[in-house]
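Appendix C: a fully annotated inverse folding record. The material below is reproduced so that readers can follow the format used throughout the book. The structure is listed first as tokens, followed by the designed sequence.
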């Protein structure tokens, strides 16, 4: 007996369409999942970068802030301290008469340049070009009158470093005859250039304040080198000669 197989009945069209739609949706979903995953991963990385950038943004973009400078405080200028040896009180005393009897002291024809008892003691004297000595109490002006140490002629007034009135006398008597004696740091002069003076005659006053290179009222008296320039000797060149004569005639 011959049996024939007939084909299965065809599926209804609506069922086929529904099945195809479901299968297509599954395929689209399967393809979209990796893309969504990639998008999510990219978003995460972007978020991480954003967060990292936000964390370091203050360090990278924070503006530099400088502190305002402190206001300068102006202090009053301090008066520098000065030793007592540099500042001497000026002693006011009655003017010494320029005529009449003067109390002088002398030795070997050399007259001490200050009136007797008016100069400081030898322990206060110093030597450089000449001999520096001051009146007692560092007096000046009429309280410290200077006299000629011997006879002579005034050949110059004013010496660089010793003041504009410092006299130079060309000696004609005493141990320094033929040589020049200078009186440094003087103030008022009593005699003019060309005048002839006698031993013990008042010729000038010790200058007050800083006269020439000086920090206090005093006299520097010195003598020139024999046959040398009119003024002045070198350092300690003739100062000891003058010192010996001052010491011998000091009273």
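Designed amino acids, in order:
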């Amino acid at each position: 007996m011959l049996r024939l197989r007939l084909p299965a009945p065809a599926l209804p069209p609506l069922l086929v369409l529904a099945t195809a739609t479901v299968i297509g949706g599954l395929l689209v979903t399967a393809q979209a999942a990796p893309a969504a995953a990639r998008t999510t991963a990219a978003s995460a990385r972007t978020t991480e970068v954003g967060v990292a950038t936000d964390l370091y943004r203050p360090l990278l973009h924070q503006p530099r802030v400088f502190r305002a400078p402190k206001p300068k405080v102006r202090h009053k200028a301090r008066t520098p301290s000065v030793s007592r040896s540099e500042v001497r009180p000026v002693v006011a005393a009655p003017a010494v008469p320029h005529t009449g009897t003067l109390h002088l002291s002398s030795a070997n024809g050399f007259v001490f340049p200050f009136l007797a008892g008016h100069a400081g003691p030898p322990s206060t004297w110093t030597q450089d070009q000449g001999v520096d000595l001051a009146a007692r109490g560092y007096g000046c002006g009429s309280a410290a009158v200077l006299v000629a140490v011997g006879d002579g002629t005034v050949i110059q007034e004013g010496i660089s470093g010793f003041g504009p009135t410092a006299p130079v006398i060309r000696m004609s008597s005493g141990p320094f005859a033929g040589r020049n004696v200078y009186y440094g740091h003087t103030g008022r002069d009593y005699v003019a250039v060309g005048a002839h003076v006698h031993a013990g005659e008042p010729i000038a006053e010790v200058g007050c304040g800083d006269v020439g290179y000086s920090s206090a009222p005093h006299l520097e008296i010195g003598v020139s080198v024999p046959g040398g320039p009119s003024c002045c000797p070198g350092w300690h060149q003739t100062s000891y000669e003058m010192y010996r004569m001052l010491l011998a005639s000091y009273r």
